[in-house]
Structure formats: C-alpha cells, structure tokens
Amino acid sequence: MKEVTDAVGTSTHHRIVATTPCLSTVQGPPKQRKRMHMLLQRNRVGVISAGVAMGAIALGVTPGIAHADPYVPVGGRTHFVGTKITVGAHWIGGYTLRDQATGKTSLFYCGDPERMGPSSGGGYHGKSATQWRTDTGALLDQKHVSQIAYVLGKWGQTTSNKQASAVDAAVYALQGKSDYQLHPSTLGWKRAQQAGVTSRAQSMITEAGRYATGSAWRLSVSVPKSVTPGSTVQATASVRTRTGRGVPGVAVTLRDQATGKTVKVTTSTNGTAVAHFATGSSAPNVHASASVPATTLRYWAPSKSGAQRILMSGLTMGLSASAHSTFPAPNLKTTALDKADGDHMVVAKGGTIVDTVAYHDAIPGKPYKVVGEMMDQVTGKPTGIKASAKFTAKAESGTAKVVFTVPTGYAGRKLVAFETLYDGAKIVAEHKDIHDHSQTVWVPKVATNAVDKADNDHVLPAEGGTIVDVARYWDVEPGKDYVVAGELMDRATGKPTGIKASAKFTAKAESGTAKVVFTVPTGYAGKDLVAFETISMGGKIVGSHQDINDHSQTVSVSKPTPTPTPTPTPTPTPTPAAVAPKPTPTPTPAPSGGVQTGDVPGGPVVGWIAGGVALIAFAGGAYAMVVGGRRHDTHGE
C-alpha cells in the first residue's frame, strides 16, 4: 500500500478503489478499459472513516484523518442516486458505497466535472481539507469551500433522486466554473433543467451563501441566572453564524443534567428554540447539542492522475453548549425578643431570648440547621451564649426559633444575636449585623442618687422635706415609654416606709436620667432612708436599683434638736412697809381703879426695851427692801 500525503503534509495509509465510473463513462481504448476493469475487480475498497470532532465554540476538522472503515460497492456494483440525462456525462447525482463495519451506506459526489470518472482513479485515499483547488488549479476561498461542505452536509445524504441531482448541480456551480453556473445556456443549467432541479439547486446555493460564511457556527443556550426551587425554567437555544445571523431549521437537543429530562427542538427563523424544565431539588444545568453541516470537505483522492476526486456527503460537526441556573442563596432575617413579654429587653437577673429566624429561598424538603451566638454590641466579641435548632424547610420561606438562656451578669449590655444557616456542613446563609435593631436585646442597668432638694446633700431636716432621686439608666430601648417608680426604705429595719413616688419618661437614647421626687413628712427624724427604684415598660420591670447599703441612694433625716431647759426666776421676798414709831403715849391718869403707864411692870425700863425692839424691826425692813431691789435689777440684765 503506497503512502500518500495530503495537502497539509499529514500522511495516511488507506485507500479506496472505485469499481465503476462515477457519473462519466470509462474512457480509453478497449484493452485499457478491460485491464482497468480487471484491476478494479481484483481490489476491494479500503477506507478509514473518522467522525468530525467539534467543540461547542471553536470547531475544526483535522486534516489528513482517514476513514477507519472500508467502503465497498453495494452488491458488487455502484448504485446511483440521481437522474439520467442526455447531456454531459449522462448522469447527474451521486453514488453509494457501503461501510463494511456498520453496514451503512454513504453517498459520494464527483468533485472534478472535467476529469475521468473514479473508475479510472485506481486507489483512493480519504482526506480532510479546509482548502480546495479545482481541477484547473484555482484555489477556492474558504467561504466557497464551506458552502460546498454545507450543501453536501445538509442535503447530500439522501435517497431522493431529485435531491441528489440538485446537490450535484449545486456543488459544480459553487466551484466557480462558468460552464457549470446555473444560468441559461450553460452546461450546468442544461443538466439541471433536464433533471428538473434547477430551482432547487439554486435555492441550495442561496442558503449556503447565507449561512456558510467560512467559519463554524455557534451554538449557545441560556437559562435564567437565578431561579426558585419548584419553578419552571425556560431554556433558549440559539444557533448563529460567526457574523451573528440566526440559523433556522437546526435540530437541537436540550437536556437538563439535574433532572435527566431531554427535549428536542428546532430553531425558528431567527435561529432560536425554547424548551421548559421544571426545577427539582437542584438548579437546572442544561446541556445543548446539535449536529450541523461541516465547514470543511472530506474527499477521496485518486492514486492515478486524471481521475476525479470524489466528495463525501453528509459530513456534520457537533456543536454543544451548556448553561446552568442557581438557586438564590438562602437569606436570613432574625428578631430576638424576651420570651417573657416579647420585647427587646431582658431584666438584669437574666432571662430567655427567643430569636425567630426568618429564612427565604430555601429548598423545600431539605434539612437545615441554624446556629446562633449572642454578641456584645460594644466590644463586638462573642459572649459564649449559644443555641441552635434543626428544621426541614416546608417551603422556600419559613421560620425557625433559636432559644438562648441569658444568665445574670449582663446588666448594662446590649446583646446581638448572630445566626448561621447550614446545609449539612456547608454554610449557606448568615445574618451577622452587629447594629441590627431586630437582632438586639437590651439588658438595662439603673443607678440612683438621692439628695435633699433644698441643698443637694444627703441630709434632711428632722421635720422632713423633699428628696430628689435622680435615676440614671443605661441600655434601654430608645423611643419607648417608661415609668420609674421608687419607695423609701428604712435602712435600719429594711422595711418600706410607704413614702412612694414615680415619674414617666420617653427614652430619647439608650442612656439618660429621670427624676423621682419624694415628700418626706415629719416623724422620720433620726432615720436613714434609702431610695429603691425600678424602671418598667408596659407594666414590666426592666431594670432596678435596690441596694439597702448604697450611700448614693441614702438620705439621713436629722435628729431633733433638744429644747434648752430655762433657768427658773426666784420669787422676790416682799419688803414690809415702814411703820412710823408710835409716839409714846402721854400717860393719862387712870381712872380710879385703872392701870396707868407708870403702872406697867418694870416701869420705864420695860418701855425703853419695847421702843428699841420697834426700832430694830423698822431698820430690818428697810434693809430688806434695799437688798431685794438690787437682786431684781441683776436678773433683768
């Protein structure tokens, strides 16, 4: 077997030997014809058949690849598909050979109308080429080569005599020879006219000129980028030339790799076709494939010069493309609330937070796990308070509840729930916004400072007065209405005094102050009063400050000042009035028988003594009056 090299230098060792003429008669002297006939009888057809491997975007045919399977005449002789005419070679059409490996037949067409038939060619060797020279040596441009390939690929394989005749006429005309153009009075026109295929051949040439532009077509498929589970997705296939012209009539197979569903469609006048697929548990992944006429020629070259080359028909190239949709990634929204009353605040002693996780774009029927942790909003660090929940999505959207237990010790802090959604071990969604109000729970803190309104100290007069308790709060939810209520406690007994007060306020910010005014009546002198305060919202206590030993909450009521005992004023001794000394009476002569002064016993001595006594008494009274008057003057000072 002689090695033959193709146009681009790739060698092949396989040949085909024609057993009968193509569409012309065997020419030459009788002896030569007999010897050639005997040669053809001794040789069987050898050929290697190779498919044309094409990519979805960049397509090409490898030159020099030979067909792998031997073709032989059907029934030992050539079977023609075409029309017998009285001009030219007396036949117009193609002829068939059988693939010995598969039993399938293939239709061939003569490539050189001015040369001897293939029965004069001896051995034939299969070649692929992107270039074609006519039998006169003229090099056809790539566009015309692809147009010939288009006609052979689309219409060449046929059992219709008329169609085969039209293909033969079109192939001759596309080689550019003037004698074979389909114009009146040309040989090509006469051949086609006799076969009755002129208009059909002209139509083939027109279509080839429209869609065979010298380069491969492009197949594309598109699906929506994002689809929802359980929806119906439209896949659009498009076949276009390199210049962007849509190619109609192309059969395209669309297959959803996710579900295994296959739909066959044909492109419309604009080169597109659509199919619909229902989404399952996975997003659509659509693969498109199509078989279209090749852009290169596959021909058989004779080992003997002077004979025609024969063109293989029905060659196609495969186009493919893929596109896939995705389900939108699930997204989360969470709302963290106090389990006790459904607000965003938990008391300082702790409580239970229920974080309702609302998910969207989940895949129905798929199990998920949501894992959460409470974060400190100020520091941005985790608190170690964790919780999780498992659920199976009943629909694309739904909710799951994650329950956190908050212990004591978090007063004055804002806790933010961070949530992560898992599909198995894969994270599919997160909601981690440290500033998201809906994810935030406040744990309020309260401190108070109670002072005497009169002078802002911590001491109240014994008779009572007014205490102003400034309640300072931290980490309450802004914009809400609150009530701060207090009662004064007896520090010594720890019991309430019954002295109460309250004030309402709307929190303008997370932190602020509110004043509570207590009126302390008399009766608490000497007692230490401690203000106990609570802050409530909607009837629920959210914060308190009740420390019986807190100095800032304490006001002392002064003890009463003792009333001084007045010095008693002595009662003055009355001074007797001075008595003038009585004159000594002149003795009157006593009547007869009466007693006379001179008759007093003792006589003059006794009278003198009586007078002295009277004088001493007078002097003592005068002294007493003087002394008493001086004492009275001294007390008045």
Automatic annotation (TrEMBL):
Region ranges (Disordered): 552-599
UniProt xrefs under InterPro entries: TQ (IPR041100)
Keywords: Membrane, Transmembrane, Transmembrane helix
Top-rank lineage group of the source organism: Bacteria
Transmembrane segments: 45-66, 605-626
One Pfam family named in its UniProt record: TQ
Annotated T-Q ester bond containing domain residues: 330-443, 444-557
Biased segments, Pro residues type: 561-575
Full protein name: T-Q ester bond containing domain-containing protein
Natural source organism: [Clostridium] leptum DSM 753
Lineage: Bacteria, Bacillati, Bacillota, Clostridia, Eubacteriales
